[in-house]
Batch of 2 targets.
Target 1
Amino acid sequence: MALIVEDGTGLPDADSYISLTDAREYAAKYGYTLPADDAEAGVTLRKGAINVDVNNFKGGKLDSDQALEFPRVNLYCNDVLAPIETQLLNAGQAQVIYADRINAGTDIRGDNDGKRVIEETVAGAVSVKYDRVGADSSTVQVTEAIDKLRCYLDNGNGLTFRTRRV
């Protein structure tokens, strides 16, 4: 199934920020790996887009019916309005980075308690030691992808607001 690439108009059925051809080109240029099979690559890219979209972003969706989080309106980066083309470019690059990690077998959004058994002893009584991987979750933060989106992230606690001189 072919990717439905967001074109900047807020498509209601888009499932990717980047085409397979562009994703392969970006991956090759920067040393990322996507599956060789196009169908498998499409699946990992779709999962990459989902991982982009779990973040909280500034601004608002261009259209309330759009499938993905980008494009966004009123999205400022370093006090400059971020063009839709740049938003989509950065989201697509982050998507490829997530897809690379997914392809490598990383469970980015793991659903266990974050405990990993590092030692188990059975001698009369059972003793188990756990290593804490992340405080309470096994979610992996892919900082390289987050860096592509950093300027767009809303890290507020809901009690802050921005003012802008007009």
Target 2
Amino acid sequence: MNANTVIAVCAVVIAGAALLVSVSEARATRKHNQYSVRPILKLTTTFPVGKKAGLILSNSGLGPADVTASSLSLDGEELGAFDERTVNKVRDRLSVRPSAFTLGEQNFLKTDFDRFLLSVEPYDREQHKEFHDFIRHRLRVEIWYDSLYGGEQFRAVHLPVSRDQAR
């Protein structure tokens, strides 16, 4: 083997290693960019006396969420999507009808989205005891969504808390 052959083989090995590093860095950068614009939907509850109270949907991520599906269950029975028709069926069962925001027409939730899905105002512990029980112990809401930039499927869930766990 002469010196020219050794130099050529070394050059090919170095070029191959550089290509592998470049591909690896490009994948890492793409993954980082997907995470940096990922939406993070959360379903939370709040019951401050004298203020607006209920179930809140918020996007605390850095990108918009593309809502692809939703479901609403009451006492373990699947009722349908979290749309106006289904939510109205549920609200009609309560003695005090809460305000509602549904996801029927809302496909994209912007980065700083923060809305009550079901709420009463002003909240009173005695007057809205049934509403509190409904949200905390009977209602299940699931929202499936995608990131606009990554195509990944995510899910936000509000689960009913058993009365034993609440104590």
